Amino acid sequence: MDKRWRDLGVLVAALFAVNVVARLITRFGFDGDDTAADRVSLTMFTVIGLILAVVAFRWGRRRPLAGWTADMALVVPVALLLTVLVGPLLVGDNPFAGGAATFFAQIWLYLLATGVGLLIGYLVLTALGRDYRSQQLKRYAEVRAAKPRRVVRR
Hints:
By secondary structure, the chain is mainly α.
């Protein structure tokens, strides 16, 4: 159980670190250039989606779907809150400086990136037949095929 919470904490920290790095690059490298800032943000969302696709692929092999999606239902909102509320403060901005539209756009884009990343990772895993459920069914079929049929005497 302790390892599970550590893994969740590391994942939240990694998602938040990607955001902090993107904000620092935008702040110090492209201050005032909106086009470059948009590209950095798009790259940040892509990296977050790729991280979660890899996590879904790896965790989906070892654990049932209900187990790791419950963990993701905890990780994604915590990382989202850190990204939207704490991230701007680290670079000297106000989280609500861009207005309500920008604030909620960040939330929707983050949820979209995480959702697409998790979905792609799990769909690739399922398409390859390596998810937890497919492996269970494969083992069951092998056990059933290995046992000889019992002859019933009457």
